[in-house]
Amino acid sequence: MHVIYDVETGIVDKLIPDVDGSLVLNVQEGQSSMPWTPTITGLADYSWVEVDGGGNKTLHAAPPKPEHHEWDWPTKSWLPNLDAAKAAKKAEIEAEHSRRINEPLLYDGKVLDADQTARDNLKAKLEEVRERIRLNMPMAPELLVWRDNGDQTHHWPTIEAYHDWLAGYAVAMSDRGTRCYACAWYHKDVLKAANDQNGQPWTVESIAAHDITAGWPA
Questions:
Q1: pTM summary value
Q2: I need a labelling partner for 91 at 20 to 30 A (CA). Which of 30, 58, 108, 200 fits?
């Protein structure tokens, strides 16, 4: 096998077998070649050839790519991509927000579901109870119930008491939801700043180290 590379930059263009003189046909103007013995890992995506004063050729390969880095040919090194690192951290923040806002909620001494299904159920039930009260429509005692996260069913003596409890539950859920959004916004705003919380310019490492678990409501 042979590698074909650009004489001026040393950048490897392609890898070909020398079959029936095909090497000569594949080397274009401004290019040269050198023999290469295949390895298990193959030829690295970013490879180049250096030629010393004696004409000796050495094939170099980029080291493994660090997370959130981009290859830079002028320096032949991996350079940090802060935008990519921040985008990844932002995705982590959004995932943490989604997890937190859907966690069970402690209200009135009860651990209650607070995921999207629970929010939809609560909204529908609260609207139903409000309409029943407005229309003076009674509600059977067996309907004045709510089941908590531990599958325990709770009962209320009157539709008014049931309404007030549901309304308080909705307020508590909304309050925590707003606080979760505020915490997510805070973490995203931290990343938008030019410097990290220690006053130093951001690095891939400091972005990764930013603790997104701090500040969330219970």
A1: 0.80
A2: 200
